[in-house]
Design goal:
The protein has helices at residues 17-22, 85-100, 132-137, 144-163, 214-217, 219-222, 231-246, 260-269, 281-290, 301-305, 308-311; strands at residues 48-57, 60-67, 73-79, 109-114, 120-125, 166-167, 176-178, 184-186, 193-194. By secondary structure, the protein is of the alpha+beta class. The protein folds into 2 domains: 17-125, Phosphorylase Kinase, domain 1, CATH 3.30.200.20; 132-311, Transferase(Phosphotransferase), domain 1. Strand 1 and strand 2 (60-67) form a beta hairpin. Residues 24-36 have a biased composition (Pro residues).
Length: 319
């Protein structure tokens, strides 16, 4: 049951578009070199044959494609580069992040190139089981044992990103890719931000508000001048684990459609959701470490990797 707290004035003003844009780092030019593909030849759009549509969303379409010469299979994310300069900056920011990352638990990019009409394409590593959201919709049961294995991989990816001053800011089941070996890759950096020398609070209203931490809704009440800017990703991880375990978004009843006001009130005024009875003490403790409303009390990715819920997981492939 949610605890009624003393009323306080929240600073919930949505930033103006001009305020959003001024926070963006300068984009890389579209022609900047991208990481090379595993083959000795750089990938171009003409080299790829579309096989099927994998999904739609975030202003674009993802295709399963095959390299005509090598028969290697990739995912091609085509983002509509419309006339809005802010949209193009967001696309190029994602390209900038993808070019900087090299982790076994962060999706690999093999090339970024322009398409006719202004669209931008990302040639990505292909994950044959889709996303964790896809598995959840298809009835996969996420046991504690499975979640501990998945969680350790996500944390390893987050630790890498945070050590390179990258905040994801939109971590959720639909942005975590998985293959048949249940190996995961963190993906979709369209709303992430590479921190510059000044570590600003990243309290702008981007990403999916359902997974936003309390300090992103109301930094004056739940943050501080020195709060950990990476802590929002840890909050999102806790909600993601809960959603996978209980089968629905934990702040809402099954089938309920979220809206911004309902979510804001639940996250800022209510108590964090908890695991149902019957779960292990380690699992409960881990989720509690993620879902501390006071961001300064939330554990970091490095600290969580030492938590008993995930510390004993062996990520080495079996012989």
């Amino acid at each position: 049951m949610a605890v009624v707290r003393e009323r306080r004035q929240l600073n919930l003003r949505l930033p103006l578009p001009s305020e959003h844009r001024s926070r963006f780092p300068p984009p890389l030019p579209p022609s900047a070199p991208a990481p090379a593909a595993p083959s000795s030849t750089a990938i171009s759009a003409a080299d790829l044959e579309k096989l099927q549509v994998l999904g739609h969303g975030n202003g674009g379409t993802v295709y399963k494609v095959r390299h005509k010469q090598t028969s290697a299979v990739y995912a091609l994310k085509v983002v509509h580069g419309d006339s809005d300069p802010a949209v193009r900056r967001q696309i190029l920011r994602e390209a900038s992040i993808l070019r900087r990352t090299d982790s076994p638990h962060v999706i690999k990019c093999h090339g970024v190139f322009d398409l006719p009409g202004g669209d931008i394409a990302f040639c990505m590593q292909y994950m044959d089981m889709g996303t964790l959201e896809t598995l959840l919709r298809n009835g996969v049961v996420f046991t504690e044992s499975l979640l501990s294995k998945l969680c350790r991989q996500i944390l390893t990816g987050l630790e890498y990103l945070h050590s390179h001053k990258i905040i994801h800011r939109d971590l959720k089941p639909s942005n975590i890719l998985v293959d048949q070996k249940m190996e995961i890759k963190i993906s979709d950096f369209g709303v992430s931000k590479i921190l510059q020398r000044t570590l600003d609070p990243c309290n702008s209203y981007v990403g999916t508000c359902a997974y936003m931490s309390p300090e992103r809704f109301d930094p004056d009440s739940f943050g501080s001048k020195s709060y950990d800017v990476y802590a929002g990703d840890i909050w999102s991880l806790g909600l993601t684990l809960l959603e996978l375990y209980v089968g629905h978004f934990p702040y809402l009843a099954p089938g309920q459609r979220p809206d911004w006001a309902t979510l804001m009130c639940a996250i800022c005024f209510g108590e964090p959701p908890a695991l149902p009875e019957g779960t292990s003490g380690d699992f409960r403790s881990f989720v509690e470490c993620c879902l501390q409303k006071d961001s300064s009390k939330r554990w970091s990715a490095t600290q969580l990797l030492a938590h008993p819920f995930v510390s004993g997981v062996d990520l080495q492939p079996s012989a």
